[in-house]
Write a structure and sequence with these properties.
Layout lengths: L1 H6 L10 H12 L8 H8 L4 H12 L3 H27 L3 H11 L4 E2 L4 E2 L7 H17 L3 H14 L1 H18 L1 H23 L12 H7 L11 H8 L1 H14 L7 H8 L1 H14 L3 H6 L4 H18 L9 H29 L13 H12 L5 E3 L4 H5 L3 H5 L2 E2 L3 H7 L4 H16 L5 H11 L3 E4 L7 E5 L2 E5 L2
């Protein structure tokens, strides 16, 4: 857990994608919040249950979001580690090899051009859903069908698209391996297809089969969503997992080392790149649903499967089945080397790249921003704020996530959410044009935007000739009405 957090540059609260999740949860607790951003938040929140689940937990326990998110972060890491141990125990012959796998999984890295990382330095529902999916794969190897289904269902409730890739993988594996599961798998697949059709035609995804036009695409402005525009190195980085998995599996088969269910899991995993190839034409045509699904993230699953096999190859290789002293010594050396590599990389990340970060920051780290956001939470819940469009990158958290108040625009996250709804995308684009065309950081410009968008406060890092409402060190909060 410590190594994973080191390699993720420390645990943080209200960072990155929590700019969406925290406002969605807070809005469940108090629907009157975010009057100017309700459509933006709801366009993505309606697609998941995580905001309802966490809001219910807050109501039931009375715990703060800061401490609940820390607990969820720790729980996610525990689940991921335990799932990896469970799989490693089925595939490896040495406990040191299992330890080596644990160390390898702490080496955080990005899945090229997908917007996903193998680890995050904050609680992310996608990570929790992935951990549950990893457990489902372990249960598949142990022939525990009900546990597999329950874990996949829990994963889908938390992050549907991440769960979807595990469903494809494990369903394909079940059809190949478990004759007694084939009928039930096909029945569940048919039921899932009917449910998906209803969701897409009449449910929350209705209207998502349209083609995204130029204004919508310009509002998103994210090229990584379109694999046909990736550079060659991104393709190589993602596709290299396929030959690694197949080569290691064949080596294990020749050495008669494969475990029960392993072959089905390997062949089932090939359905993921196949699905990706089938999805590509729809993505290239800019069908909204195809873009929103981000099927390129199937390579995250391929990445961890390749890591599992690479660790086996390094720690044990295709030596005889017996667990001899040589195999154990080799696995021990690999485990120690991976632990040292993880510690060295994590120490460099924390000490050199991000020397001002703490290993675990339960609340917002920027002192002035934290105080300013405390003041924001004391203002009228209906108040609307103006801030630097990239304030989340500057202070480590967005005004919506840290201050629980509406902000005119938060460029980084608003562009990402705009992918889910055309009207929202056009609204985001219009607001970004407004703050670029009007000097928002001047008294006249701030007042002009306040009149246009009914804004109440401006937070900025320098003094202006406006009525001061609060000062937090280097930050000034001014009244705009």
């Amino acid at each position: 857990m410590a190594l994973a957090t080191l390699n993720a540059a420390g645990y943080r609260y209200a960072a990155s994608d929590q700019a969406f999740y925290i406002p969605a949860i807070v809005r469940r607790l108090d629907p009157s919040l975010f009057p100017g951003s309700a459509a933006l938040i709801d366009s993505q929140a309606q697609l998941t249950l995580i905001d309802e689940i966490v809001a219910a937990a807050v109501r039931a326990t009375g715990v703060t979001l800061q401490h609940l998110f820390l607990a969820l972060y720790v729980g996610t890491l525990v689940l991921m580690a335990a799932g990896a141990i469970r799989i490693g125990a089925r595939l490896y012959r040495s406990g040191w090899a299992v330890a080596a796998l644990g160390a390898a999984l702490t080496l955080r890295h990005a899945i090229a051009k997908t917007g996903a990382n193998t680890l995050e330095g904050y609680f992310h529902p996608r990570q929790l859903a992935f951990a549950l999916g990893l457990w489902a794969a372990a249960m598949f190897l142990e022939r525990r069908g009900r546990a597999t289904l329950l874990l996949i269902a829990a994963s889908a409730a938390i992050h549907p698209t991440t769960a979807l890739w595990f469903i494809v993988w494990l369903a394909a594996a079940a059809l190949l391996e478990r004759r007694e599961w084939r009928r039930s798998t096909l029945v569940l697949a048919a039921a899932g297809a009917v449910a998906a059709a209803i969701v897409v035609t009449r449910g929350p995804m209705a209207g998502h089969l349209t083609v995204m036009d130029a204004p919508w695409l310009d509002a998103i402005g994210e090229k990584d969503l379109y694999p046909l525009e990736w550079p060659a190195d991104a393709w190589i980085t993602n596709l290299v997992a396929i030959p690694i998995v197949l080569a290691c599996w064949r080596a294990r088969r020749r050495a008669e080392l494969t475990s029960e269910g392993e072959t089905a899991l390997v062949l089932g995993s090939m359905s993921l790149p196949l699905l990706f190839l089938c999805w590509l034409p729809f993505n290239a045509a800019r069908i909204a649903l195809a873009v929103q699904l981000q099927a390129s993230r199937v390579f995250w699953l391929m990445d961890i499967f390749a890591t599992i096999y690479l660790v086996w190859w390094l720690a044990e290789g295709s030596s005889p089945r017996r667990r001899d002293a040589v195999t154990t010594r080799r696995a021990r050396v690999v485990a120690v080397m991976l632990f040292l590599a993880s510690f060295a990389r994590g120490a460099y990340t924390m000490r050199v790249q991000f020397p001002d970060r703490r290993l675990f920051a339960v609340d917002i780290q920027h002192d002035d921003w934290r105080d300013a956001m405390s003041f924001a939470r004391s203002t009228d819940p209906q108040s609307r704020w103006l801030a630097d469009p990239i304030h989340a990158a500057r202070y480590g958290s967005s005004l919506r996530a840290a201050g629980y108040r509406d902000v005119l625009v938060e460029e980084l996250k608003d562009r990402a959410i705009a992918m889910y709804d055309r009207d929202v995308a056009l609204q985001v684009a219009e607001r970004l044009r407004a703050v670029r065309d009007t000097p928002w950081d001047t008294p006249a410009g701030a007042r002009a935007l306040a009149r246009r968008y009914a804004l109440d406060y401006l937070v900025i890092d320098r003094p202006l000739e406006l009525p001061l409402a609060h000062r937090s060190g280097s930050l000034f909060i001014y009244t705009l009405r």
